[in-house]
Amino acid sequence: MVVRPHPPVKRPQAPPGALDEAFGWDDLYAAMQRELTYAIAPAGPSDAAALARVHVDAWRETYAGILPSIYLERMSSALHEHRWRQRLLSTREATLAAEGHKGLVGYVSAERSRRSRTGVEAEITTLYVLRAAQGHGLGRELFTAAARVMAARGATSLVVWVLRDNLKARGFYERLGGRRADVGNEYVGGAVVASVLYRWPDLENWLTA
Ligand SMILES: CC(C)(COP(=O)(O)OP(=O)(O)OC[C@H]1O[C@@H](n2cnc3c(N)ncnc32)[C@H](O)[C@@H]1OP(=O)(O)O)[C@@H](O)C(=O)NCCC(=O)NCCS
């Protein structure tokens, strides 16, 4: 799946009377489009190193001031590469990666979380977009792509846990229609941190709305 910039990049206008070709406007426009165009595809074990790099960078960007700084400083790409390789060998979880022209910039993982009385619930277990690629619709596309995969695997509802103090991500999930469903505590990075659960109770309806 190819994700184009959202909102669409406006084509620059040449000054009045000037020829587009003379200014190289077409090349500039094509470069701007390319910069913000991403391909989303399923990830496999050979993506482990790239996913680990994005993982470490995104955590440092996201959790400064939320998780202990010593934990963030000591995060190791090598360790996370190993963990990602193991994780990607599992068929339980689906991971999709977003690649730009300079390499991977984001990813999402999801799995079936539990079977409830009303059907099968899926969980988005991780979703990260590097800051440089945020704000152009990629987070929504990754989330939607993972939701589609889980719906195809039989999920009828979807949840995601987010740290309570990660207000930007909470705003994003609320914008996508997630309803606050629970609160809890997680042990992350050597600290106990409060978290909030968002739920999409009717996945099919959300996907077709
Ligand atoms: C949260 C995250 C995935 C969102 O991705 P993104 O590419 O920046 O978001 P998008 O551009 O796809 O935004 C989708 C919609 O949400 C809205 N939105 C994004 N952030 C928002 C916020 N903080 N508050 C309100 N709305 C928000 C956008 O305006 C957009 O609305 P629209 O589609 O109706 O125009 C991304 O910012 C990220 O990776 N953050 C750091 C990591 C993180 O916190 N991950 C979640 C861990 S649980």
Can you summarize this structure?
The chain has 209 residues and is α+β, with helices and mostly antiparallel strands. Helices cover 38% and strands 33% of the residues.
How are the SSEs ordered, and which strands pair?
Layout: E1 2-3, H1 20-23, H2 25-35, E2 38-42, H3 48-63, H4 69-74, H5 77-89, E3 93-100, E4 103-116, E5 119-129, H6 138-152, E6 155-163, H7 167-175, E7 179-188, E8 191-200, H8 203-208
Parallel strand pairs: 5-6
Antiparallel strand pairs: 1-2, 2-3, 3-4, 4-5, 6-8, 7-8
What features would you highlight for this structure?
209 residues; alpha+beta; Aminopeptidase; 8 helices; 38% helix; binds coenzyme A
Description:
The chain is α+β, with helices and mostly antiparallel strands. The protein has a domain at 22-156: Gcn5-related N-acetyltransferase (GNAT) (Aminopeptidase). 38% of the residues lie in helices and 33% in strands. The chain contains eight helices and eight strands, in the order βααβαααβββαβαββα. Strands 1-2-3-4-5-6-8-7 form an eight-stranded mixed beta sheet, with helices on both faces. It starts with a strand and ends with a helix. The site of coenzyme A (COA) has 20 residues, from helix 3, strand 5, helix 6, strand 6 and helix 7. Residues 58, 62, 127-129, 134-140, 160, 162, 166, 168-169, 171-172, 175 line the site of coenzyme A.
Derived from helix and strand composition plus strand pairing, the structural class reads: alpha+beta
Strand content: 25-35%
Measured on Cα atoms, how large is the radius of gyration?
19 Å
Task: Compute the separation of the termini in Å.
Answer: 20 Å
Uncertain segments: none
CATH homologous superfamily (4th level) name of the domain at 22-156: Gcn5-related N-acetyltransferase (GNAT)
- The first-level CATH class of the domain at 22-156 is given as Alpha Beta
